[in-house]
Amino acid sequence: MDAGATRVSADRLHDVVRRLTGVPARRVVRNIVELDDGRQLLAKRAAVPSTILAEVAGLCWLAQPATIAVPKIFGHDEQWLLLEYLPPATPTREAAIRFGQGLAQLHAAGAPAFGAPPPGGPTEAWIGRAPMRNAKGTDWPSWYAEHRVLPYMRTARDRGDLTNAEARTIETACAAFPNAAGPAVLPARLHGDLWSGNVCWSAVPSDGSTSAWLIDPAAHGGHPETDLAMLALFGCPYLDQVIVGYQQISPLPHGWHARVGLHQLFPLLVHVVLFGRSYAPSAVTAARSTLEAAERIP
Q1: pLDDT tens digits for 283-295?
Q2: Domains along the sequence of the chain with CATH
Q3: Is 171 exposed, middle or buried (0-12, 13-18, 19+ CB in 10 A)?
């Protein structure tokens, strides 16, 4: 990008910040804005307007129980979202335990139904850059198959990123969901895209302690083990302590370890859709682990 384009971009961001906050920007460095009153904001621009609506609704819904820190929203329109800037901090064991406790309490805040969007959020939402439909259901295994796993499996198969044999393995796993899913649960209030990159470790202004903050949600009503499986998918700092904290508030049902693959099948298929065939073997492995979990049921 040439210098002229950079200046135009910064000038435009100055205009956006003044329009959405009513406060002039003192300095703009890339997408971090320092206001005249000293506050720092993170500016996010969306190519698709509904992504802003979904993110705003999701952040507000996750913030409502006040169990985990969520960045404050300073303003938004259909193209721009201005969020509280979170300076990075080093995660600690104690912060991880508190994160697990808060996540359990967030899940317990509940949702109206499996697949329910946040209040005011769109039915046609997003997970990363992939479309995600928030259609309501009453039975988690069938809802998960119909609205989370099978749509992405079909897209990946039709694009040639899954072979027909791999797709059949995933379809077979979907048929086994009722046996593999474990005890019935009530709809939980999920972050929905809780990989480690969407957990921001930053300081709490009130006392300076490190805390986990939730960003970039794909929020909806779902199974509580889904968020935990997402944390394990690409690694989360002090994950064992997160689980310890979670179980202090909400003990996980027997066999939850064996169900991790079932809950990772959805995000892995999203990755196949977004990034191609390289994630297909992992998705098939998750499907096979689901079949193994189902076979353990008497």
Answers
A1: 999 999 999 999 9
A2: 1-45 (no CATH), 48-71+86-295 (3.90.1200.10)
A3: middle
